[in-house]
Amino acid sequence: MAATTETAPQPTYTNLGGRDRKAAFTNLGKVAGLVVLFVWCTFPFVWMVSTSFRGSQAGRDTNMFAGPFSTGSYERVFDEGFMWNLGNSIFVAATTTVVAIALASLAAYAIARLPIAYKLVILSGTLIATVFPPVSLVPPLTLIFNTLGWLGTYQAMIIPYVSLTLPLSIFILTTFFASIPGEMEEAAKVDGATPWQAFRKVIVPLAAPGVFAAAILVFVYAVNEYLIALSLVSQNPARTPATVAIATLSREGFADPIGEIAAACTMVSIPLIIAALIFQRRIVAGLTSGSVKG
């Protein structure tokens, strides 16, 4: 009996080289775009840090790598008591964040869970408060706080900041609470948890990305706010935040304190950058996840 020989199937050749080149060019374009975006975003900060070490020389020579470099600007900023102003900013921002997130969590949970009609309309209405320019709030706030004797106090900044950051915080947290299945709370209640315990021990931990995202946004806003602080607190140097202190740094003769301003801005920026890097995953998750159920 003759043996039969089987021929192996011939491979089909496709344009693999063209595909590989296309993929390589695509990846190269992505990397180049990321590099350009990174340089675009970090260049102002690098220039600011360079200016802080160059001092008044930065006003005469725009070459950011030209010396001499020194820490004199930082020393003068410390001598003017800027650390106290920075502490004021951190205290006001931290207090604003705690109060705003606590109130926003309760409001957002109610909107997400209670059988309320037109939830999207309510959320849209809360965001309307963000379109009012802060300058329009300064005259009435000045009159009110002057009557209460609160001008030049911490609460003159904290109360407006909480009011201005609540709408966005409520919107972000509502999207997260609405995306959490209601069965989670029902299971907690079956196990004997009260509604408050179910909210605090089940819902809030599951919505942690949204809570962190809202908290970071509120904190950054409170640290960077300038107009309200200048109008309501600048008359009391002991309560002046960092933003107002930077604008009122003392001059040396007729020269602008460019180095001191850059040094103070660097000192304010570094804690915010570190916080953003630490919580960047939670921030991204908080801004991109969740959905509102109508």
From TrEMBL:
Membership in a protein family:
Belongs to the binding-protein-dependent transport system permease family.
Q: Where is the ABC transmembrane type-1 domain?
A: 86-279
How does this protein lie in the membrane? Multi-pass membrane protein
State a single Pfam family of this protein. Answer: BPD_transp_1
Which InterPro entries did the record assign?
BP-dep_ABC_trans_perm (IPR050901), MetI-like (IPR000515), MetI-like_sf (IPR035906)
What is this protein identified as?
A: Carbohydrate ABC transporter permease
Report whether Membrane shows up as a keyword of the record: yes
Q: Which PANTHER family match?
A: INNER MEMBRANE ABC TRANSPORTER PERMEASE PROTEIN YCJP, MALTOSE TRANSPORT SYSTEM PERMEASE-RELATED
Q: Give compartment(s).
A: Cell membrane
Q: What is the lineage of its organism?
A: Bacteria, Bacillati, Actinomycetota, Nitriliruptoria, Egibacterales
GO biological process, alphabetically ordered: transmembrane transport
State the GO CC annotations. Answer: plasma membrane
Residues spanning the membrane: 31-50, 90-111, 118-138, 158-181, 202-223, 261-279
Keyword tags = Cell membrane, Membrane, Transmembrane, Transmembrane helix, Transport
